[in-house]
Each structure stands twice: as structure tokens, then as C-alpha cells.
Amino acid sequence: MPCVLTVDVGSTFTKGALLALEGPEDEAVFRVLSRASTPTTVDHLARGFQDVCDRLKAAGPGGEPPVYFSSSAKGGLAIAALGIVPELTLKSARLTALSAGGRVTSVHAYKLSSRDVQELERQRPDILLLAGGTDGGNETYVRHNARVLTGCEGLRERTTVVYAGNQVLTDEVVDLFTQAGFDVRSAPNILPEMDCVCPEGARERIREVFLQRIVKGKGLDEIVARTGRAPNPTPYAVLQLVEAISRQAPEFGEFLLVDMGGATTDVYSCCRDQRGAERVVYRGLPEPRIKRTVEGDLGMRVSAASAARAAEPDLEPEEADVLAEYVGQLTQNPGLLASTPIQQECDRWLAGACLKQALLRHAGTHRRVFTAAGETFVQTGKDLRSVSRVIGSGGYLSQDAGFEPGRALRGVAGDQAETLPLVPQNFDYLRDEGYLLPLLGNLVCDYEEPAVRTALSCLVATSTTA
Amino acid sequence: MGPDTIVLGVVGADCHAVGNKILERVFSDQGFRVVNLGVMVSQDEFIDAAIETNARAILVSSLYGQGELDCEGLRERCLERGLEDVILYVGGNLVIGKNDPALTEQKFRQMGYDRVFRPDSDLAEAARTLHEDIRQRFHALPVA
């Protein structure tokens, strides 16, 4: 019975599982033998990691199973995104950073101002993703921004520049940064033409930088030396799993995965944005089939105050008062676990608001316009209405069997407003009961098929309608 | 140096798609790199695309008779957003009713459009004119 260890070094907890691969090869699945978790040892990540591994191994059949791991500790993979027009190259840069598993620390459009530079020097991101211009297109802004950035002493040591803009300027930009003593890498343009968003090349380069430089900077290199394996940024592991599900299990259909944590809510969508409907005019860049968004102000604990503000309009005044009091307690003690029925209800209100807002921001809209040719809809963003399954993961969603996403989304898409959000309408809600999905994401590289089978079989269904 | 880039689209709440496709075809055949934004394009979308692609010209179509309202202010907006030199063409059924074409042309030129085209304009001829306008504005200058 071959075993594997999979561990996630999170910002607050380091958690892992020992899994056994069972069954004949073409239907093999992983079975959980044991779980362990410990507070992340931020001063020395390898210590907590080793503690979890030792406890897991002690519970197993012996031997030295291979270890796979991901990390979002010490701020994860911090990326600043630069582009020219907010809706075009900047949007593409942001999307690329998120699809690489990054955390976007700041975004900057057009020419960098001294205020932008101050912000960058304060944030000191791991990577600066510099984009701008289609191939053969604008050169002015990128040239200006590259010159400004090469003068930033504060960024030189720590930040790697990934250039993925107008290819006409690649050599010039690389030379400028190299001469100024920066670590700079070039990638294919993320927007080579106006209708074509191509994040893959830059995403690959970001991954390379993560492995070569950032792993060491965060003290993960000791773990790499012990395990002989490189880590994934945690959201990248989840994305790997989402991609693997769509490859291995097309019958699962179009789906969303919502990973709700204490500080953020991540949404991953896997659905094709069908274009070409009658009476619909499409605006903006085409949407990728697999897309990730992160909401830094929506979460169950650290971000509970802003989530509560989002919840308030849907609550009765007395309910809002109860929630406000609960959020007060959470602010004092972010580690609080709901124990009374009232606290559990408050958690549901918070989760409902996080889910609703995160989906509204991930999804596109139809705006109703009356033209000389009659009623027409202008679509911006991604149409999620064809999604038939929503997966809930993360500490809270995994454990609360009573949470009803349909209740949170009620009325969102139904009214006759001018703007219609394109959120899923009729879907099955599936719960990642064991909170296993990120850990399975680590295994996709070597065990794609068993990881997908295990992921799908560990989901628990509750039917729901919005 | 590759072909010159131009941005093309139908402005405002106008859904007329056929002429737009024909323009894309003709201007591509005449040696332009055409960024076609399609129908119902806002002024800012024209400008966004022109900035990213370093377009030499924006070709605005309007077929449904409300062109005057939709086209007003585009030149000013271009200047405001840093497109000082871009060439602006406008064409189509620009105003409703039987107006004097010369008056219409004058009105749109005052709005800052470099050339104004009637519905029956010869497109190949327009493309040649555009090549010449681009040459004069962008390529005849001494290299800085």
C-alpha cells in the first residue's frame, strides 16, 4: 500500500494528511490514514512542517513516504501588477498574477507616479509583473515605467521583474533592468493582440521565479532540501486541481470552487463563456475558461468586519445588531469558534455575505439597453449561469452542513433591475467535508487521476436553488 | 516597421454590424492592421484600444442617426487621455433627415474629426486617403 504525505504551510496553520493509494490502477483512490495540524512557525517554517510530518508518519505503516507541499505563509506569493489601460493590459496582468497563485499587492495603470513608487517600495512585492502595449503597440508607457523602476533602490534586492508587455521592447527593458542591477525575466506578451489574453508564458515565468528565489527568501528551502520536492503556492495547487478535474472528469460539468478562509474568499470558475447569443453585445476582453479571483475584504475572521458590512443590507435590524456584537468578539479573538446557536447563525450570515459578494465580483453582468433595434443586453465579464455545481471549501464551508448557499443568493439574479448579475442559478452545492481539496491539489503533478477521483468522491451534496 | 494600426467600431447604442464587417475587410486588404471593436462601442473603448495598440487612427461609424450626440467630445477626450496626434475619421448616416451633407461635414469637422464620410463613399479611396493622412502626420516628421 503506497503512502504519500501532503502538507499545506498556511499563514496561520500548517496542516497535513497521510494518504494511502488503494485499489486497482485505473480506479485507484486515496484514503486518509491520518490528519495533523499545528500553528505555523513563522520564525522557522521548517519546524512546524517537520512536526506535522513526524506526527503523520508515526500514525502510518512506517517507511519514508514521499512528501508534497504547498505554502501561503509569510504573505504568499506577493505580486504587483502594472499595465497601461485599467480594462486592458492592467486587467490582463492582474488575471495572470492570480492565475499563478499570487496575491496582488497593488496595481498601477498608465505612467507610474511618485506615489505609485512609494507604494511599491512600501509593499516590496516578490514579483513585479510589468505589462503594457500589444505587440507592435504602445511603447511610451512601458519605457517610462521601466526607467522609473530602475531608479528604485528599495526594490532592487528583493523584487524580481517579469516583463510581459509589448515584445518590441523586450530587449530594451531587459537591458535597462539588468544594467540597474535588477533580476529581470522576460515572458511572452500577456495581451499580444486586443482580443487575445495569453497568461500562460508569464505564469510559467512567475512559477520559475517562485521556485528559484522566493522559496529561499521565505525559508522554505530547508523543506525543499529535506523533501527533495518544490512547493506550490497554495492557490496554485487548488488551480491545478480545478484544471485536472476539468481534464479528467468532463462529465462533472461546469463548476465553481469557493475557498473561504478567515481573511479572504477565493473563487475559481471552470466554465466556458459562450459568446454569440442573439441580442447580446459583448464588451471587454474575452474571459478565460478557468479563472481565479480573490477578495481580500471577505472572510470569516480577520475580514469579518467588512463581511458583516456586506451582510447588513440583507438582515433585519435586530439581526444586524446581533451580528455586530459577534464581530466585536471576533475582532478581539480571531481564533473564536462558534459554539452557541446564535454564533452559528452569525457565521452563516457572514458566510452568506462572503459567498454572495465574491460571486457577484467574479461574475459578469448583463446591462439592459434599449436601442433602435429593440431591447439589447450589453455583457461585461464572465457568464456563470451555465455552472451546475458549486463546491464549498475552507475551514468554515467544509464543516457547516447547515449552510445553504441558495439562501445567500436568493433574489440576486431574479429582479428586473437594469443590471443583471450573471451568477449561477440552479446548481448543486457540494461540500469538501474533509477540507481535503488543497492537499489533493499538491498531488496532481504525480497522481492526477487518483487525486481527481478522490476529490470528487469526498464531496458531500446538498441540493439548492438560488 | 509593420503596418499601421487603426481602431474601428460603431459608436453608441448602434447595433448595425454589416457595414462594420465590410470596413474591417476593406481596410485589412488595404494594408492596415485593423483592431475591430464591433458594435455599441463607447468613446473610452475606442481610446483604450488606441492607447494599447499605438493606433494611428480611430474610425468611428454611426448608422442610426444619433451620431452627433455619440461623436461629440471624442477629440477632447483623446487629448485628455494622451492621444494628441491620433487621426479621427467618422462616417455613416450621421444625422436623421434630409440635411445638407456639406453642413453635416462642417459640423463634424468642428468637433475635431479629420475627415467625414457619407454612406456612399468609396472605401478603397478612403483607405488610400488614410494612408496619406498617416504618412503626413506621423512619418513625414523628422525622427526625434
Give a description of the structure.
- The complex is a heterodimer of chains A (466) and B (144).
- Chain A is of the alpha/beta class and 466 residues long.
- Chain A folds into three domains: 3-74 and 218-230, Nucleotidyltransferase, domain 5; 78-216, 3-Layer(aba) Sandwich (Rossmann fold), CATH 3.40.50.360; 235-465, Nucleotidyltransferase, domain 5 (2-Layer Sandwich).
- Chain A is 37% helix and 25% strand.
- A six-stranded mixed β-sheet of chain A has the order 14-12-11-17-19-20, with helices on both faces. Chain A has a five-stranded mixed β-sheet with strand order 3-2-1-4-10. In chain A, strands 6-5-7-8-9 form a five-stranded parallel β-sheet, sandwiched between helices.
- Chain A is globular.
- Chain B has 144 residues and is of the alpha/beta class.
- Chain B has a single domain (5-139), classed as Rossmann fold, CATH 3.40.50.280.
- Chain B is built from six helices and five strands.
- In chain B, strands 2-1-3-4-5 form a five-stranded parallel β-sheet, with helices on both faces.
- The mean pLDDT of chain B is 92.
- At the A-B interface, helix 2, strand 13 and strand 15 of A face helix 2 of B.
Quick structural gist:
The complex is a heterodimer of chains A (466) and B (144). Chain A has 16 helices and 20 strands. Chain A has 466 residues and is of the alpha/beta class.
Helix/strand structural class of chain A: alpha/beta
- SS content category of chain B: alpha/beta
CATH level-four homologous superfamily name of chain B: Cobalamin-binding domain
Q: How is the biggest beta sheet of chain B arranged?
A: 5 strands, parallel
Determine the N-to-C terminus distance of chain A.
Answer: 44 Å
Determine the CATH topology of the largest domain in chain A. Answer: Nucleotidyltransferase, domain 5
**What number is the mean pLDDT of chain B?**
92
Task: Outline the fold blueprint.
The complex is a heterodimer of chains A (466) and B (144).
Chain A: E1 3-9, E2 13-22, E3 29-39, H1 45-58, E4 67-71, E5 78-82, H2 86-99, E6 103-108, H3 114-123, E7 127-130, H4 140-150, H5 153-156, E8 160-163, H6 170-179, E9 183-186, H7 200-217, H8 221-227, E10 232-233, H9 234-248, E11 255-260, E12 265-270, E13 280-283, E14 290-295, H10 304-311, H11 317-332, H12 341-362, E15 365-371, E16 374-380, E17 389-393, H13 395-399, H14 405-409, E18 419-421, E19 426-432, H15 437-441, H16 448-457, E20 459-465
Parallel strand pairs in A: 1-4, 4-10, 5-6, 5-7, 7-8, 8-9, 11-17, 13-16, 17-19
Antiparallel strand pairs in A: 1-2, 2-3, 11-12, 12-14, 15-16, 15-18, 19-20
Helix pairs in contact in A: 4-6, 9-16, 10-11, 10-12
Chain B: E1 5-10, H1 18-29, E2 33-36, H2 43-53, E3 57-62, H3 67-71, H4 74-80, E4 87-92, H5 101-110, E5 115-117, H6 123-139
Parallel strand pairs in B: 1-2, 1-3, 3-4, 4-5
